[in-house]
UniProtKB/TrEMBL annotation:
Coiled-coil ranges (or none): 9-43
Domain BMERB: start-end pairs: 1-146
InterPro entries the record matches: bMERB_dom, F-actin_Monoox_Mical
Protein name: BMERB domain-containing protein
Keyword field contains Transmembrane helix: no
Biased composition (Basic and acidic residues): 175-196
Keyword terms, alphabetized: Coiled coil
Segments for region (Disordered): 153-196
Bias type Basic residues, positions: 159-169
Statement: the UniProt record of this protein carries the keyword Coiled coil: yes
């Protein structure tokens, strides 16, 4: 049994590799921008670079989110497949007349029912994680939008002075270690730990 939005494993792998390449490129661009910002003295140029910096952060967040979604999708699809297998085996067992059941059949039914419950719990946990991630991502988007608004990049120069952000403070706030949150690999390992 496959969901309507099933994505073949090789397609997920290809997209993950593409995301990694794009993240590497963004990392290089981010380092270049950071060096330019540290040396910047002209406020007008600084504003322009900060706009680029925020756009880069937003793009990086979008890629990290997609990578995380793909990890969750892979795990969800694996769980769906295993659940379908367990349900099939359980149906076959339950189709057997009860008078013909052996002790092994009863034990197998118990084991399959427990595995089914575990699979459903794991799938529910993935949905919960996706919801939590979505909420956190919305908060991050609001934070970045607020920083851009505070900076007021596109307003007149007089307004700019009021909401001045210090570039180094922004760089610390949005440093790569914070921008990537938990890596999807960490989430996958955490999820596998919960499986056991």
């Amino acid at each position: 049994v496959q969901a309507d939005d099933y994505i073949p494993e090789h397609e997920i792998q290809m997209e993950m590799e593409e995301i990694e390449l794009r993240l590497d490129e963004l990392e290089r661009r981010g380092v270049e921008l950071e060096h330019k910002l540290r040396r910047m003295e002209d406020e007008a140029d600084e504003d322009s670079l900060l706009v680029d910096w925020f756009k880069l952060i937003q793009e990086k967040h979008a890629l990290v989110r997609r990578e995380s979604e793909l990890v969750y999708t892979t795990k969800q699809q694996d769980l769906e497949q295993r659940q379908a297998d367990v349900e099939y085996e359980l149906r076959c067992l339950l189709n057997k007349p009860e008078k013909d059941w052996l002790d092994e059949d009863k034990e197998r039914e118990r084991v399959l029912m427990q595995e089914l419950v575990t699979l459903i719990e794991q799938r529910n946990a993935i949905v919960k994680c996706l919801d939590e991630d979505k909420q956190r991502e919305e908060e991050e988007d609001k934070l970045i939008a607020a920083m851009i608004q505070k900076k007021d990049f596109h307003a007149d120069p007089q307004k700019k002075k009021k909401g001045k952000l210090k570039p180094m403070k922004v760089l610390k706030l949005l440093s790569p270690k914070d921008a990537k949150q938990k890596s999807p690999k960490d989430k996958k390992e955490k999820g596998e730990g919960a499986k056991r």
